[in-house]
Amino acid sequence: MQPSNEPSFRDSVDIMFNRAVALMDLPPGLEEKIRVCNATYTVRFGVRLRGKIQTFTGYRSVHSEHMEPVKGGIRYSLGVNQNEVEALAALMTYKCALVEAPFGGSKGGLCIDPRDYDDHELELITRRFAYELIKRDMINPAQNVPAPDMGTGEREMAWIADQYKRMNTTDINGVACVTGKPTHAGGIQGRTEATGRGVQYALHAFFRDGMGLDKAGLKGPLRDKRVIVQGLGNVGYHAAKFLSEEDGCRITAIIERDGALHDEGGLDVEAVYQWIAKHGTITGYPDATLEADGARLLENDCDVLIPAALEGVINLGNAERIKAPLVIEAANGPVTAGADEILRDKGTVIVPDMYANAGGVTVSYFEWVKNLSHIRFGRMQRRQEEARHQLIVDELERLSADSGIGWQLSPNFKEKYLRGAGELELVRSGLDDTMSTAYESMAQVWHGREDVRDLRTAAYLVSIDKVAASYRAKGL
Ligand code: NAD
Question: What is the maximum alpha-carbon separation in the chain?
Fold first, then answer.
């Protein structure tokens, strides 16, 4: 539980923003223009369910329209409120600027616990919420493009896209009104895994940064590092799975809403995920120790702590006891402004949310471009690329045979080299490039300026600079 003497999520974001802006030389007034949320729309609507009308409250907040469309997920949770949605919308502005996704920032939310409704009821509620937003152009491929967030996924995005198409039958770009759709409904390969994949690429970038590792008191490589993950949902599951299966990390604890599983030898992420999918709880999972007070495991000894559930989980109440030298914010706002101060003083390095979880919006950008261009990435080039590679392989083999050297290209090399990149390979390559380029831009400021002590301030400086440049170009 977050202590009550902490600033709200929205205030926390502003405190961090102000800390960065104090180090910048922005024209008078521009700082406030960037910081404030442009508009927040509240909608209350009724849906007839189980024989009576139930009223729901939803929000769509637009933080900055320096670029359009604005972009940001739609969250389904009982904790959704105006303050939270505005904080998340602001983070979207800074995130998009940092990773050079050409969008303004927005966010939406519906105040429900999706587990209280069956599939058909959720479809009715989602379509009605979407209807309210679409008719006000708050879902529109040119103006405002939502995506999944906590409590929503591919299925909800497909319903929203279909609702938009029903209301805009002649809009040829209609499917681009939302991202994170299933691939059979206009989605892109690699979107579901994208945020977790981005967390993995962010850690790769961090572990390539010798000065960053020194500041955290860590040594490479990433292999065998002890990792604690909070939240085994979309983001946490993919991050934990890739880090354990591909990078050889040990996932020593998984913290969920009903407790935590612990095994210093490393948990089998896929097995835990399947257990939760089948039983709806981590309780009873046979191959690990169960800790009833899950949040306490945030304080366990480990190398990397990945909060991937919700905001405010590292706060004034527990920050002092956090032992991880490296915290990577897969969730939005998991560290409050007060906790951030305490952790920085202790020397903990925090990879900030606006960078760490930007993989989702990056691949959403690719999906939006794919929808607008009406063609799958790689469709025109793949066979041609394969044919050119085949030419080189044939020529090398001919030269080797003719000269009598007798070199053989290994079958493994040939198989990899001859295969042209499909959509998934291209998406992953674009995401990797985005995450490393953005990391370098932050690290340059972090290591290059004496007045910048942490990666979060560096991230804000890079992104605010870009938003400011965009406003200046408009003559503001
Ligand atoms: P999700 O709904 O798929 O998963 C959330 C997980 O956290 C669930 O497994 C849930 O049981 C668990 N959880 C909830 N409350 C908890 C608690 N108190 N303690 C421990 N676990 C708890 O959501 P998601 O899409 O994975 O989003 C998680 C975070 O990542 C959010 O902060 C979201 O804003 C952020 N994020 C998501 C995306 C995306 O593409 N989905 C992109 C960027 C950022």
Answer: 84
Read off the tokens for 410.
Answer: 């290994």
As its CATH architecture, domain 194-359 has 3-Layer(aba) Sandwich (3.40)
Tell me the C-alpha distance between 339 and 25, whole Å: 27
Same fold, 38-187 and 194-359: yes
Which pair of structure tokens corresponds to residue 203?
């850690």
257/465 Cα distance (integer angstroms): 38
pTM, rounded to two decimals: 0.96
Q: In ligand 1, which atom is closest to the CA atom of 75?
A: 34
pLDDT at 476 over 80: no
**Ligand 1, atom nearest to 330 Cα:** 30
pLDDT at 475: 77
Q: Structural domain boundaries of the chain?
A: 38-187, 194-359
Q: How would residue 30 be classed by pLDDT, with cut points 50, 70 and 90?
A: very high
> Looking at domain 38-187, what is its CATH homologous superfamily?
Leucine Dehydrogenase, chain A, domain 1 (3.40.50.10860)
For ligand 1, whether the C-beta of 231 sits within 6 Å is yes
